[in-house]
User: Fold this.
Amino acid sequence: MRIRAAHVLPVLLAALAAAQDKAPPVVEPTLKAPRDTALEWKSAQGKPYWYRLPGRLDAKNPPDLVLMLHGTGLDHRWSFWNYPILAGFRPRDIVVSPDGLTPGQGSTCNFMQGPKDGEQIAGLIADFQKRFPIGRVYLYGHSQGAFFTYWFAGEHPELIDGIVAHAGNVLDVKHGKLAKQKVAIGILHGKADAVVSVECAYRTEKIYREQGYEKLKLEVVEGLTEQSGHWPLPVQVGRMFEWLDQVSTQSSAQALRTAASELQRTVPDLAVIAQQVQKAKKLLPKASDEEKQALPPQIGALQDFLGRVLAVQIDRLSSDPAVLEGKAAYGEWVFEYQRCESAFADDAAWKKAATKLRDLGARHDKLIERAVKGLDKAAKEGPSKDARALAQRCLDEAFLASRFGELLAAVARLDDAECKAKGAAVAAARKATEAAVAKSTAEWLRPRLDELRAAAPGLFDGEAAPERERDGK
Assistant:
């Protein structure tokens, strides 16, 4: 599938100001090449690409390799024009922005599924791995580049650890065992995309889910216009890469670095931190002797931090006896419970305190599972009053389910204005409630984060300032 150049021309035009900048110097990628600046070189096929090396290259803590693949009617410069690669985008990584090999409109080239384009990308990965210490390998593809990225992940799962496929669609992709177990699939799409329909994202996610991929994430971005729905999304793409980091950890030090990065948020995701602590502990025996001395105190400090946070959360939930009894109505406590359940599901203290709530959440999940299956069946076979009624009931009653987002997505796809309107209203109300919880959580969490920074300063070496400091708060 090709995307007409007329549709992506606004994206190219938006970057024309950057095109006035002087072309980067042509410098072979070696350890002596300049850092933190745009440079140009050519692939083995003779096609130019731009790349940026991080300020620090450490074989003990190697950077990841990120390849950014453009869409139809564009070229290798697009990624640097539309993403802040020189101003904070994946600053620890090596970022490479190549050209496709299949001729397109004018002097542009496209990435097309097949050996020709595939061999160039495989060759670039191999070349950079020979020249530099490399950790994980990620691909980002936009539009036609996303189509190719899906294909490459199925064709060469041994070469990459994860992809971010933005505004694309999966076509004729292999789904081997290695791909399902190893490769993380990040699907990103603007809901109002007028070039590649958002239905492609829903369909793609369904295919990968049914194929049994172990690492799969879909994000549909709301609030965009039909014009902007197909444009670059630096913030959302950056967050999707962070998710790739979380599910693709390869070393104890890497796990702690991911946890430290998450802790820079005003309200960090406790589940991410807990997962990375467990990975750091599991991978510690494979660490170097130096790391085996330096990392355990950091792991211990994180465990203490999580323990203190859990104690506060249990106290907050216990303030209303009806909550832990599973008899409370929907309220802010729902999101506090879900935060704890996602992070502390295996913790003995949490399981004891929240037994009844966990049972209630499981019942709500089963209701939503039935509702989503019914809605999917109705989408294929025609309207169903029973499926619609169960969906309406779940919107009202199954508020504790971890799968509530699946219900909202299924309702949004319905050809039923009344049910869609109710789903949208519930989604907006939940979003507002979650924002209120985040605000209150930031207040009581702040001193505990400060205690952690004081206890384990080495954990935060090289990390950016916390969000509240960057925001001037």
Q: What stands out?
A: Residues 1-20, 464-473 have pLDDT under 50 and may be disordered. DSSP finds 19 helices and ten strands in the chain. The chain has two domains: 5-248, 250-473. The radius of gyration is 23 Å.
